[in-house]
Design a protein that fits this description.
Elements (H helix, E strand, L loop, with lengths): L1 H22 L11 H9 L2 H4 E2 L2 E2 L1 H10 L2 H4 L10 H6 L3 H7 L2 H7 L4 H13 L5 H26 L5
Antiparallel strand pairs: 1-2
Helix pairs in contact: 8-9
Length: about 160
Amino acid sequence: MLLDLITYLPDDILVKVDRAAMSASLETRAPLLDHQIVEFALRLPLGMKLRGREHKWALRQVLYRHVPREIVDRRKQGFGAPIGEWLRGPLRQWAEDLLAPSRLRDDGYLDAGSVRQTWSEHLSGRSDWHSRLWNILMFQAWKQREDNEIAACREHRIPA
């Protein structure tokens, strides 16, 4: 709990929420991070936080009094970006350029046939390969940037 409080929350979750909210001109609040609530939660004995496999036991007991049980007990839902849809839509041309067969073959790092098959399956909607494709695209974009910087250095006779 303490590790989440000092690393994961401020360095990851809260940063993402803040950026997403600011991009939509929204102000967000995290009421359960009020210092008095956090201090209280840190003082609670483990048995009030965890009962068997049930996490946040004390919080759930309070919520059951005010919120329907089916809401309290439902599975977590993430809010990931719709990258798969973006790759089929507004990011398609960018991805096509980075995944061009000639580029993949010339670079020699990735199997062009396999990457193109994955891309084709994703575009057709037969499979959702957005995670795999995103990793490949990030590598290709990084490589393109590195290649451009090296070319610029050579053009100006600067050691790369």
